[in-house]
């Protein structure tokens, strides 16, 4: 497989969530896409801030770009998506992998959502199929389903770069957890092998960096070769069985993400809040003793 042209990539990192939002530009036109956008939420006051998304909008406007796609790699458990806000302000299509419907069905039951929430993916403008091709301006793109962290995880091969979401972190941090509903360590291993089959020089951009012990700076970019050689969970030709055991042991030590119970209710709706209740106020539900 030959690598395509390299996109221009702008990184908007968020220190509160260790998340990175990517603005991906076609170098031959004004077209762009935003991957894994976010907005801030204060758990104590219940107040939102669109400041992180506003920074992305200001950049798009200052560069005279046209937002074509608002891409989600999966339903995030650690932050609120700003996809709905970006679409309202800048246009573009909100898109995610078609297995989002499985995730929506799981959380419709988990939150005991009523008839207003239909788990059919209609909260998103486009549902990608595995290996589906699309474009950002003249920049060729392809969807790679990479389940394991969640059933709906997808990575985006854009030109000569892959945006992996939570599937891979930086090599010294390893891989995503697999203990969320529908997660599976064996599936994650298989998904990673799909990425590892790409040319070694393929650039990989990760959704999170937690700055592993011993490293001074945050980092967001690696390569297929670097990950294959040095990833602490899956590199060095580690077997599927070895990886599953590492992941199982690691996941048992992890706590529930602090934003999870609040954020998923919005993120399964394409980054929009549940509808207001009869008093005109929007509420987020917290299931008690359910996890």
Which secondary structure elements does this structure contain, and how are they paired or packed?
Layout: E1 8-14, E2 19-25, E3 31-35, E4 40-42, E5 47-49, H1 51-62, E6 66-71, H2 83-90, E7 93-97, H3 100-110, E8 126-128, E9 133-136, E10 139-145, E11 154-158, E12 161-165, H4 185-196, E13 203-206, E14 221-223, H5 224-230, H6 240-252, H7 260-267
Parallel strand pairs: 3-6, 6-7, 7-8, 12-13
Antiparallel strand pairs: 1-2, 2-3, 4-5, 9-10, 10-11, 11-12, 13-14
Helix pairs in contact: 4-6
Order of helices and strands, N to C?
Answer: EEEEEHEHEHEEEEEHEEHHH
**Unreliable stretches, pLDDT < 50, 5 or more residues?**
none
- Helical proportion, percent range: 10-25%
Strand order of the largest sheet: 1-2-3-6-7-8
Q: Could you tell me the strand content as a percent range?
A: 15-25%
Strands, total number: 14
CATH topology: Metallo-beta-lactamase, Chain A
Structural class: alpha/beta
Number of helices: 7
Q: Round the Cα radius of gyration to an integer and report it.
A: 18 Å
């Amino acid at each position: 497989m030959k690598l395509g042209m390299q996109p221009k990539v702008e990184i908007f990192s968020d220190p509160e969530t260790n998340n990175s939002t990517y603005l991906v530009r076609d170098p031959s036109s004004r077209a762009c896409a935003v991957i894994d956008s976010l907005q801030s939420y204060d758990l104590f006051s219940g107040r939102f801030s669109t400041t992180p998304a506003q920074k992305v909008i200001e950049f798009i406007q200052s560069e005279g770009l046209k937002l074509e796609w608002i891409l989600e790699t999966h339903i995030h458990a650690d932050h609120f998506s700003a996809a709905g806000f970006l679409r309202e302000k800048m246009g573009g299509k909100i898109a995610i992998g078609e297995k989002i419907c499985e995730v929506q069905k799981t959380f419709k039951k988990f939150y005991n959502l009523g008839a207003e929430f239909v788990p059919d993916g209609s909260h998103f403008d486009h549902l990608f199929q595995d290996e589906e091709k699309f474009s950002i301006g003249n920049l060729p793109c392809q969807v790679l389903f990479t389940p394991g962290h969640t059933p709906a995880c997808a990575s985006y091969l854009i030109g000569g770069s892959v945006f992996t979401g939570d599937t891979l972190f930086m090599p010294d941090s390893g891989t995503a957890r697999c203990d969320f509903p529908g997660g599976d360590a064996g599936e994650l291993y298989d998904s990673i092998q799909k990425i590892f089959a790409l040319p070694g020089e393929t650039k990989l951009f990760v959704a999170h960096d937690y700055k592993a012990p011993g490293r001074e700076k945050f980092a967001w970019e690696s390569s297929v070769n670097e990950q294959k050689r040095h990833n602490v969970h899956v590199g060095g030709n580690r077997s599927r069985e070895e990886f599953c055991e590492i992941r199982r042991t690691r996941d048992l030590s992890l706590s529930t993400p602090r934003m999870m119970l609040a954020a998923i209710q919005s993120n399964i709706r394409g980054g929009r809040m549940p509808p207001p209740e009869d008093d005109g106020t929007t509420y987020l539900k917290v299931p008690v003793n359910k996890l």
